[in-house]
Specification:
282 residues; Alpha-Beta Plaits; seven-stranded mixed β-sheet; 33% helix
């Protein structure tokens, strides 16, 4: 048996689930998992279906689904579950998020292929080598930013990347790249934003006596750190915690939140509806 994952988005109306089910049965399929949601504000219908069948011709499977669902004009995704998504990870000097992704990938906890690691510094080259992942250093300055992004785009094409992960990459991507990869760039930041913008956010938090610190994983847009949220988490802290303690706790939250978000995206469990995300259960 071959497993497929189908994702679907369209305007909600009667008959979508039935038509999908009929198409799957017609190719000898058996639904293993199904999750759906209708956004009450936009009326957008979102669905993710995983099914098994003996049919191993993905072209024929896609054609049957497209034919039976044509009435609804959906945005339709069809892929073999075993054909994993390919991600390019970008990092600067802080390596905690990258290390978490590489470890979980090695342990089989992240169902994706890490095609390459790109950095504007050489610091993480040894970590990439340890895990056998190609490492590319692309320095970025005010004068080389345009050329650096051209080089990055060339790598994205050559590695046939499905999505990008910013694992504490401390450079702002151009609006054009954000637009071209809309819904396909995952970023992590501390949840102090926008309250503690700029340098030394954990020190600012300490000075204000915060009782919660956390992290947010989101899709990147041209509006800095304001893209649709994928996952979040927080940890309680007391007045006795020093800035170095907040930094340590913050790193723990950042790496776990980013890893969860990357897994969700890799498994096609995230649907974009305007500025919000629909997260299908795991």
């Amino acid at each position: 048996m071959v497993n497929y994952i189908v994702t679907l988005q369209c305007t909600d109306m009667p008959g979508i689930v039935r038509a999908t089910s009929v198409a799957i049965v017609a190719i000898g399929g058996n639904i293993l998992e199904n999750d759906q949601f209708t956004d009450p504000v936009t009326g957008e219908f979102c669905m993710r279906t995983r099914f098994e069948t003996e049919a191993d011709d993905i072209g024929a499977v896609r054609s049957r689904l497209e034919r039976d669902l044509a009435t609804f004009s959906p945005k339709l995704g069809v892929r073999l579950e075993d054909e994993r998504r390919r991600a390019l990870v970008m990092v600067s000097t802080f390596d905690h998020c990258l290390a978490e992704l590489l470890y979980r990938h090695e342990q089989g906890e992240l169902p994706l292929d890490i095609a390459a690691i790109v950095s504007n510094h050489p610091d993480c080259a040894a970590l990439a080598e340890r895990y056998g992942i190609p490492f590319h250093e692309i320095p970025v300055t005010a004068n080389t930013k345009v050329d650096a992004e051209i080089e990055l785009r060339s790598l994205l094409d050559s590695f046939n990347v499905d999505f990008i992960v910013l694992a504490r990459y401390m450079q702002v991507l151009s609006p054009e790249l954000c637009s071209d990869f809309s819904g396909r760039i995952v970023n992590i930041h501390h949840s102090f934003l926008p309250g503690f913008k700029g340098a030394r956010p954990y020190h600012q938090a300490y000075e204000r006596g915060v009782k919660l610190i956390g992290a947010t994983a989101h899709f990147v847009t041209s509006d800095l750190d304001e893209g649709p949220i994928i996952d979040q988490d927080v940890v309680r802290v007391s007045h006795a915690r020093l800035p170095k303690d907040l930094i340590s706790l913050g790193r723990d939250v950042e790496r776990s939140v980013l890893a969860r978000a990357v897994k969700l995206v890799a498994e096609d469990r995230v649907a974009l509806v305007g500025n919000r995300t629909v997260i299908f259960s795991q």
